């Protein structure tokens, strides 16, 4: 199998409103280090030839660079400004993709992503052109109608929850992000589909949670502690 160059666009555009915190959630501490540290380290450890493109809100450039200065060197990391929406932030990150490559796009606050999942997404993308990690829904699921006064039960075995890193060949992702932004673009998969291409799903991980509420930090700390205990 050919070895492709790799970029990880880490999108750290959140402002922390649901965390009831002045500091955006990607900068909050988990196991005495910022959430963003754990995310960056996971990708740097996964592949020696992977470059990080860190997308930050302009007003938090200094805070982001403090983390990079404290824990990393810059030989594999570049920083760019976020945009008005996630679509525009990813679009800005893609401007720094200079080689034909496999591109991971990952939420900065999914800080428990494992090397195994990153590798699985890479190998699947090499075969299929894309890899979007998903996990099965565990709860009962209903869909509301427009008036929200009626609803329909869905078979949860046919419902999946979408995670990141959403991973694509650069020949797919770069042209897809040249289309105009639409409100329905909630992730990279929806953009690629709007461009007219199918996406390929891959098995995600239950522990690959998104830090959005204060309790999520506690859950993440427990998962980290269990992982460390398992290595000992």
Question: Topology of this structure?
Answer:
Blueprint: E1 5-11, E2 29-30, E3 33-34, H1 35-46, E4 50-56, H2 61-71, E5 77-81, H3 86-94, E6 101-107, H4 115-128, E7 130-136, E8 141-144, E9 151-154, E10 160-162, E11 166-169, H5 170-176, H6 188-194, E12 201-203, H7 214-231
Helix pairs in contact: 1-4
Q: How does this model look, in words?
A:
There is one protein chain. With 232 residues, the protein is α/β, with parallel strands linked by helices. It has a single domain, classed as Alpha-Beta Complex (Spore Coat Polysaccharide Biosynthesis Protein SpsA, Chain A), CATH 3.90.550. It is 34% helix and 24% strand. The chain has seven helices and twelve strands. It has helices at residues 35-46, 61-71, 86-94, 115-128, 170-176, 188-194, 214-231, and strands spanning 5-11, 29-30, 33-34, 50-56, 77-81, 101-107, 130-136, 141-144, 151-154, 160-162, 166-169, 201-203. The strands form three sheets. Strands 1, 4, 5, 6, 7, 10, 11 and 12 form an eight-stranded mixed beta sheet that branches. A two-stranded antiparallel sheet has the order 2-3. The model has no long low-confidence stretch (mean pLDDT 92).
Pick out its properties:
7 helices; two-stranded antiparallel ribbon; alpha/beta; eight-stranded mixed β-sheet; 232 residues; Spore Coat Polysaccharide Biosynthesis Protein SpsA, Chain A
| Biggest sheet features | 8 strands, mixed
CATH superfamily: Spore Coat Polysaccharide Biosynthesis Protein SpsA, Chain A
**Beta fraction of the residues?**
15-25%
Mean pLDDT: 92
Which of globular, elongated, flat, extended, rod-shaped describes the shape? globular
C-alpha-based Rg, rounded? 18 Å
Low-confidence regions: none
Termini separation comes to 34 Å
CATH class: Alpha Beta
What is the number of helical segments per DSSP (H or I, 4+ residues)?
7
Helix/strand/pairing category: alpha/beta
Topology as H/E string?
EEEHEHEHEHEEEEEHHEH
